[in-house]
Amino acid sequence: MRRLILIALGVLVLLGGADALAWAWATARLARQLTAWEAARRAQGWHITHAPARRAGFPLTASLILPRWRVSAPLGPARARWRAGRLVLTVPPLLPPRLIARAEGAQRLSLPGLPVLRLHAAVLEAVFRLTLTGRPASAALHLRDLRTDPGTPAPGLAVAALDARITTPAHRLRLGARGMVLPKTRSWPLGRHIARLDLRARLRGTWPARGAPAARLAAWRREGGTLRIGRLALHWGRLRAGLGARLRLDAALRPAGTASLRLRNGAAALDTLAANGAITNDAALAAKAVLSLVSQGKPNARITVPLVLRDGRLQALGVGVLTLPPLAPP
């Protein structure tokens, strides 16, 4: 019996030592990958700073904790900035290989032309599924209970849940958001509450990695680039809307293609738009008359409106309703 106990203890010691070696190797590899990623981003004009990394997660996971995380990235002629109390990078032990990046603590987000947002979230993490060679096969973003500080320039902004996923090389995007509340700093056309937003889209064609925006869009167009929106559903206030579309760019880099717009509660939404000053009462009455005609006297019923984007104009039921500018200046 004593020999069996000693053998069992020896096996446990060996397993513990192997686990410690595996954890040390995994965290060292994660640190090397982080250093390589930071160097590549800095070569593209990014600014990245954080306090010295600390290893964590033993014995179940390999993690790096990066306190005082700061990132500044070029976004057109301006820059986007994001900071967090700390960023935690984790590699779980199970297949398929994954890298989880979780932001913790207070967040600050600054985008060009927008005020700085001070944010808090119960969950804010990105999950990257990797191939066996370490290249990303998909990326997912998970957000829960996002809120802004009361003193922020956008008070009252909140998102109960948001999940987004991008798959490569197919370039598929899936996004779902629930329980969104817009800031109370202004009057919104359909009110502050967006109950639901769902998007399913696929981008075809080769997207250039470098170059000015107009040059990249032109190159994507020459390669036969298209955007297919399989589903776009929006529940904003009393409006229920859905959209499917096949889009491309014309020679002037303007959106072109066809779409199908599905509406429900259109008349009620028009009343809200007029009450919030987004359109005039006369415009609302005229639009409700058209809705009544299309829906055979039921302006709040579900209707389908075909859309055409051609020569820089958006047409609904054959009538031009909007001028479309180029996506990027030449």
Mean residue pLDDT = 84
Radius of gyration, Cα only, in angstroms? 25 Å
Question: What is the CA-CA span between the terminal residues?
Answer: 83 Å
Number of helices: 4
Would you spell out the secondary-structure blueprint of this structure?
Blueprint: H1 2-43, E1 47-49, E2 54-56, E3 62-75, E4 78-91, E5 98-110, E6 117-130, E7 136-148, E8 158-167, E9 172-181, E10 193-204, H2 213-222, E11 226-236, E12 239-249, E13 255-264, H3 266-275, H4 281-294, E14 303-310, E15 313-316, E16 319-323
Antiparallel strand pairs: 1-3, 2-3, 3-4, 4-5, 5-6, 6-7, 7-8, 8-9, 9-10, 10-11, 11-12, 12-13, 13-14, 14-15, 15-16
Can you walk me through this structure?
By secondary structure, the protein is an alpha+beta fold. It folds into two domains: 23-146, no CATH class; 187-330, no CATH class. Helices cover 23% and strands 47% of the residues. It contains four helices and 16 strands. The chain has helices at 2-43, 213-222, 266-275, 281-294, and strands at residues 47-49, 54-56, 62-75, 78-91, 98-110, 117-130, 136-148, 158-167, 172-181, 193-204, 226-236, 239-249, 255-264, 303-310, 313-316, 319-323. It has a 16-stranded antiparallel β-sheet that branches. Strand 4 (78-91) and strand 5 form a beta hairpin. Helix 3 runs antiparallel to helix 4. The model is unreliable at 6-19 (pLDDT under 50).
